[in-house]
């Protein structure tokens, strides 16, 4: 029913393919307009609107090392560094 279409990105001017699967997805969601930007330009636009992520420094509850986390640590909850957190997740599975 749907066929791949080649479109031109309004941001960078490069051609990109609007696949039959993407067209079906758009139709299922009720989207009436075709995409105007390629995936790279859409992703860049999303990233620019979010802004940089803020990180906080805390002491790891397991090893005592430095832990950088994307949330403000609370004193009543333990915080773990990336290595200790990964190790704990591996033990649970």
TrEMBL record:
Transmembrane intervals: none
Matches recorded under Pfam families: zf_Tbcl, zf_Tbcl_2
Superkingdom: Bacteria
Residue span(s) of domain CxxC-x17-CxxC: 53-89
Cross-referenced InterPro entries: CxxC-x17-CxxC_dom, Zn-bnd_dom_prob
Domain Probable zinc-binding: 3-49
Record protein name field: Zinc-ribbon domain containing protein
